[in-house]
Specification:
This protein is mainly α. It has eight helices and two strands, in the order αααααββααα. The chain has a two-stranded antiparallel sheet with strand order 1-2. A hairpin with a 2-residue loop joins strand 1 and strand 2. The termini are close together.
């Protein structure tokens, strides 16, 4: 399946995220607490749009067999933790605030995090991971890592993660259109890292188009 036409626009988003992080390091380095061995951002609940999922899967498949196998084994625990969380959230169906609180507090280890607290796909990590640790604008609100040293009474520039998510959605929508899919609203669905690395790209696309044998 050829999605190389998306390399350039996606790399542009990645570059923008990395530049924003470096700028915050230069201007507010004393507030950033990111360092080797800190894996706080690797124990959270998040999903990826289809286009970023395809890139992540592409890079995962290029890892060595031993690293891949270890990550796939960690998927089992991640899936169990996500299932427990899903069951818990059902009890808060009529309480959006409690659902949001529970999701924000949930601790689910990313399968890509090895036992040395290192991401096995660090150079190719998703954009969400790249900007964790600096202030970001998500759903119109400024958010930051709880371990960071940013002070509420001071104003800091926030990375527009909402804007990046909109771009990723549009790219995913375009990918579905390229596949001949009419129901492009499926592009809004998010995929867990566990599902991404366990599933061939063709099947990921197929799940969105309803064609499990999707081909380019």
């Amino acid at each position: 399946m050829d999605f190389t036409y998306l390399f350039e626009p996606y790399d542009k988003l990645v570059t923008g995220a990395d530049q924003a992080f470096r700028k915050m390091q230069e201007e507010f380095g004393d507030c950033l607490r990111c360092k080797p061995g800190c894996s706080d951002c690797c124990h959270a609940v998040f999903g990826l749009f289809l286009v970023e999922a395809a890139f992540l899967k592409y890079d995962f498949d290029r890892l060595g067999q031993e690293e891949k196998q270890a990550a796939l084994q960690r998927c089992d625990q991640a899936d169990r933790d996500l299932k427990k969380l899903e069951d818990m959230l059902k009890s808060f169906e009529n309480d959006p605030a409690m659902r949001s609180y529970t999701l924000a507090r949930a601790r689910v280890r990313c399968p890509l995090l090895n036992d040395n607290h290192e991401c096995v796909l660090y150079p190719y990590r998703p954009i969400t991971c790249r900007v964790y640790g600096i202030p970001t604008a998500i759903q119109g609100m400024a958010r930051v890592c709880g371990k960071a040293g940013f002070h509420k009474e001071r104003g800091y520039p926030a990375f527009d993660l909402d804007g990046v998510q909109r771009e990723l959605y549009q790219m995913s929508k375009g990918l579905l259109e390229r596949m001949g899919e009419k129901d492009t609203e499926r592009a809004s669905l998010l995929i867990s890292v566990s599902k991404i690395i366990k599933t061939p790209v063709e099947e990921l696309i197929g799940a969105y188009t309803g064609r499990t044998d999707a081909t380019s």
